[in-house]
Design a protein that fits this description.
Shape: globular
Strand order of the largest sheet: 1-2-3-6-5-4
Number of strands: 6
Number of domains: 1
Radius of gyration: 16 Å
CATH topology: Thrombin, subunit H
CATH architecture: Beta Barrel
Structural class: mainly beta
Order of helices and strands: HEEEEEE
């Protein structure tokens, strides 16, 4: 895929919510997540898996692939909000490199949380 095609797909506005574990301690004495900053950008998102867990309770789980422009700062502690849906980043993002031209874009797996 050429960079021009990829850039044409990055058309959905999103907010990356950067977080850190600096919030108040919970009852188990673990630090809680606190939003520290936000970044407005665009992305492309597509569903990669949907499943339902029915043992003990019924829970729908949906994972997606998120793609952002080159040099977007996103990490595995962040959440992403887009179109009224909140996702959490799963694992470290991947900076995709094109031989001879440098970073093409940033990809990460995300999961719907709200």
């Amino acid at each position: 895929m050429t960079d021009a095609v990829l850039l044409s797909m990055l058309d959905r506005p999103c907010t990356i919510i950067h977080r850190s574990q600096t919030g108040a301690w919970d009852r188990y004495h673990n630090p809680t997540w606190e939003d520290t900053a936000t970044t407005e950008t665009v992305w492309y998102v597509e569903q990669t898996e949907a499943r339902e867990v029915t043992e003990g309770r019924t829970t729908g789980i949906a994972t997606h692939l998120g793609v952002w422009p080159s040099a977007t700062e996103v990490d595995d502690s962040d959440k992403v909000s887009s179109d009224g849906i909140t996702y959490e980043v799963l694992g470290p993002p991947w900076q995709v490199w094109e031989p001879g031209s440098g970073e093409s874009h940033v990809e990460a797996n995300v999961r719907v949380v709200e």
